[in-house]
Write a structure and sequence with these properties.
The chain is an alpha/beta fold. It is 49% helix and 12% strand. The strands form 2 sheets. Strands 5, 6, 7, 8, 9, 10, 11 and 12 form an 8-stranded mixed β-sheet that branches. The protein has a 4-stranded antiparallel β-sheet with strand order 2-3-1-4. A hairpin with a 6-residue loop joins strand 2 and strand 3 (230-233). The longest helix has 20 residues, at 367-386.
Amino acid sequence: MPPKGAARQQDRKGRGPSGDPVRLVARDVLRAVRERDAYANLVLPALLRERRISGRDAALATELAYGASRSRGLLDAVIAAGAGRPVEEIDGPLLDVLRLGVYQLLRTRIGAHAAVDTSVDLARAEFGSGKAGFVNAVLRRAGEKTVEEWVDALAPADPVGRMAFEFAHPLWIAQAFADALGARAGELRDLLAADDARPAVHLVARPGAITAEELALLTGGEEGRWSPYAVYLDGGDPGKLDPVREGLAAVQDEGSQLVALAVTRAPLDGPDGGRWLDLCAGPGGKAALLGALADIDGFRVDAVEPAEHRAELVRKTTKDLPVEVHVVDGRDSGLTPGYDRILVDAPCTGLGALRRRPEARWRRTPADVRDLVVLQRELLAAAWELLRPGGVVVYSTCSPHLPETVSVVADFARRTDAVQLDTRELLPGVTDIGDGPGAQLWPHRHGTDAMFVAALRKPV
């Protein structure tokens, strides 16, 4: 929810679109996502800078844009009920305004009068009085019930379906989470609630350059629970922080930090020759942490990324570190075998990071999984060929979905002589990460993205 002060400020102003830059920004983000398949977390910061919106106004714009993107399924059901027609029959630009208005009504503390009037003003300024009247009528109907009453009226009867609707997740994703929780599927409500909340900003302190304690003092943040390099921030724009601008720190989820640390902690058979590989490096966060840790011991990291624009991100992220970027396909890299440690942070559905990518849950479909699993298996097999005897491959995904995680690793172990390590031992101090040999992080348990990690060692 937005800060109370920000909501009250907007209520008092009650301004139309010519004087309401906050809601215009939020609407324009929704429009970019719908029309161009844009990413809200990339579009919004650029618009805020371009329109010079900061402070409480920026916080409210962020809440409205991200919240409406996350909540789309629930919002659309309420809009359809209020309009008496499917949302597919409503013009897209008008639907953006309706989603923004219903979100304010049902999922923020903004007063109903301000939520309705500002939305009607947006519609009138762009479409005229006729469509403004339609927006007014739909929002009035939406405001006749609380969000809890709408859930009671519209949600499916089955428990998983109801929770999926209440916490704005597609049913197939909620079911995938329940399957991954297994015997602890009773935690699904807590997981979906955590996944539906705006996450804290996590910073990583660059090893050898600054400690987490120093970074916390400089930024006003709090040292992380699990990674020795993590710092939590309540909010704000981390790009404006001096340690981030100076390359001493970067934004990185603590779960991703733990994945990179697992690579460095895995026990090898034989000495570490200092040849490390990140086979799926873009956009470069894990490669940078690996590079900083390698630099301390005089080791080097090769980083593979097939797309040039993402490879350039890796280069920028790993600047001044012993990391060499190769713009090749990880399945056929042409690199010389003999690596001691390899990270395969495989492309995946990203179901574990939905809270950081507001619209992503509505873009993914079950059909995406099949092709991704094929790619994941191919990348793991390629890494195995590049690994020296006694070396270790760490396989990770930002997804808890069983076909992408334990199934991929178990299938690979059956077809090879790979020795599965107990990954929990590579994450010392991190509790409640499963029964092994893989480890699963969760937003509701650990405050991290739902990262899966497994480690495989090649016999000598």
